[in-house]
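Q: Here's a chain of 243 amino acids. Please give me its 3D structure as tokens.
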Amino acid sequence: MARWLSPAAGQVADVDGMRAQLRAWITATREGEGGLGHWAVTLAGTGEVVGGASLHLLPVGEQDVEIGLQVAPGHWGHGYGAEAGRALVERAFGLDIDEVFALVRPSNSAAEATARRMGMTWVGETDKYYGLRLNVYRRRPSDGPVRGRRRCDAGRGAAGSPRVKGVRMSSPIRIGVQIQPQHADYAQIRDAVAAAEDAGVDVVFNWDHFFPLRGEPEGKHFECWTMLGAWAEATSRVEIARW
């Protein structure tokens, strides 16, 4: 994982070194100003630590705030990074921070997907930070409420600081909408997907049939997987899937 961090971070030499680093982060979080800091990402059911999350100032000018996330490889694929990230976005906005950033190496497609699931939008590339060329993702309060797959709670750590937790659902119901890719131009379908996302829908589905199921059998119809790829480009928060 160290190869993806910005700047590149070497491995901590030993357990004592890791404990010293954690103590430094705990102290900085407790004594720091502005509500920024470092927190553990833990499973709500077991308390197992599965990663870390931070809100910190970017080095140039120390004005822009970055979200940092790390999840242990054994826990990849469960959405914990995106859940923790959304919790930090909410925290930042509650501190009246007017925008937050995530910096991602261009080859780290998993991190780019996580940024999008946090509701962030790609705004360009930069070599301003850390001496690396990085993709920049940004989210502002004007982008709308922080929605998505919500299985995180913000607890209280031992030092009185928030601790991000995962697994437990904060809402018992999720909303899905199927948009049938038939008898319409792509612009109309794209507008429908955007409207569903703006309305707060959690998941938008299409289907994998090769022809219209209703109406004129020779009518216009779009292929499933290409359509999902197009929706990925057109959305920033909602999940997309085949049904």
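Q: Can you summarize the key feature?
A: Residues 176-242 form one domain.
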